[in-house]
Amino acid sequence: MPFRRFASRLARGLSVLAIAAVPVLVSAPSYADAGFQRWIKDFRSVALRNGIRPATYDLAFRGVTDPDREVLRKANNQAEFKAPIWQYIDNQVNEDTIAMGKAMKRKYGSVLSRIEKRFGVPAEVVLAIWSIESQYGEYLKKTDRLHYAPQALATLAYADRRRAKFARGQLIGALKILQSGNIDRRHLASSWAGAMGHTQFIPTSYLAYAVDFDGDGRKDIWNSVPDALATAANLLKRNGWETGRTWGYEVVLPKNGKKFYGGWQSLRAWEQAGIRRTHGRQFTINDKATLKVPDGRNGPAFLAVKNFQVLKRYNNADKYALSVAILSDRLAGYDELYADWNRPFEPLNSREKRELQSHLARHGLYDGAIDGKIGGGTMGAITAFQSRTGLTVNGFPSMEVLNKLRR
To answer: Which tens digit of pLDDT belongs to each residue from 133-181?
Structure first.
């Protein structure tokens, strides 16, 4: 999601997804919230001063009488769980995301080729972003996770002091999108924090980068896969993506225990310091690079160049950019990483993780999605199971836990 740090964390013809027909409904009020209604009334003048027409504002809030309580619930439950780097990468780069990405590359090959030609961003990078942002559009089919964007953002502006300033600005952006006619009110869907469409753009980023790539006269990142993927590529291009250049290199550190410090140096200087590319490969250019060792010197190490920093304009976190980079390499046909992550257990593949979640659900310990993605809910359930059965309590999705569950 572009700039997701502000928010925490489908096309017609051949590119139409089934969810395009699913309407986005305003949450039905359980009771009229007078304070929220007063806030909507008062904010109208702010919106009009920012170029929103009265008819647009009135249309956007027609029938909206209460905050979206689910938005507040989700906002209050954020950031209680921080994944270690190996878990974050495992959730984003695995046999499922690689297989589906290759299938989408075949399905949208012509579109991706045209996007790459126009914006200079490799198809695999665009696909990796699509995967991480919305699971290649699968997230948008889960209508219970979607919200009516103006109501969601008004809810945060009204009732979430920490996010109120952000939400007010994004609400103006959402109203401008509605006013533009690029999407109708019925389909102006977002996450709880206002991220929209296949590639999860917040409204202000949409206004800055959205592209009509399918030529129908609308910039529709909700229903048009070409528009959504081109919009992601446009963001990268406009922020300095260098065509024909990589994001970086996996490298091997010298075994003498030498310490390295942050900063940007030429690849030649890193070589002179004892750092080498994996598999005996050579650096063919002399770009500036910075060293990334996200899992300690015994885990994978990388020399990141400028395009890595451009990926961070989508989400300003090394682990996000690294997951896009690694997944894009796998989609391009490159091998797994030379070094493995420092997982303190025997890992499971995606099928085994789904099996583990199913077992935990049958034990009444887990009520989340059976999707193979290990988050706080799954680890909490594992911890409870380990406590019951005398296993070491650590919450890790290990083969040891799965085998115990099978028995």
So the answer is: 999 999 999 888 899 999 999 999 999 999 999 999 999 999 999 999 9
Which residue type is seen at 232? Answer: A
Would you state the pLDDT for residue 258? 81
Up-side HSE of residue 144: CA atoms within 13 Å toward CB? 1
CA–centroid distance for 274 within its chain: 35
**pLDDT of res. 306:** 98
pLDDT surpassing 90 at residue 333: yes
How confident is residue 99, by pLDDT bands cut at 50, 70 and 90? Answer: very high
Residue-by-residue DSSP string for 2-41: TTGGGT-----GGG--GGGGPPP-PPPPSS--HHHHHHHH
CA distance 80 to 78: 6
Torsion angles phi and psi, residue 292, rounded to 5: -120, 120
Rounded CA gap, 47 and 43, in Å?
A: 6
Strand partners, 302: 250, 292
pLDDT tens track for 17-28: 333 333 444 444
Output the six-digit token pair for 20.
Answer: 């395009």
Q: What is the DSSP letter of 364?
A: T
C-alpha to C-alpha distances, 6 to 18, 203, 240, 259, nearest whole angstrom: 30, 12, 21, 34
The CA–CA distances, whole Å, from 341 to 140, 274, 338 equal 31, 22, 10
CB burial class (10 A; 0-12, 13-18, 19+) of residue 376?
middle
Mean pLDDT of the chain: 91
Q: Helices H, strands E: what count in the chain? A: 17, 7
Specify the pairing of strand 147-148 against strand 288-292: unpaired
Euclidean distance between CA atoms 111 and 107, whole angstroms: 9
Report whether 119 contacts 112 (CB < 8 A): no
Q: What is the four-CA torsion angle of 268, 274, 279, 285, rounded to 10 degrees?
A: 0
Q: To which H or E segment does residue 45 belong?
A: helix 34-49
For the chain, first and last CA: distance in Å? 41
Euclidean distance between CA atoms 228 and 210, whole angstroms: 8
Query: Among residues of the chain, what percentage have pLDDT more than 90?
Result: 84
Asked if residues 119 and 230 have their Cβ atoms less than 8 Å apart, the reply is yes
- DSSP β-ladder status, 288-292 and 301-304: antiparallel
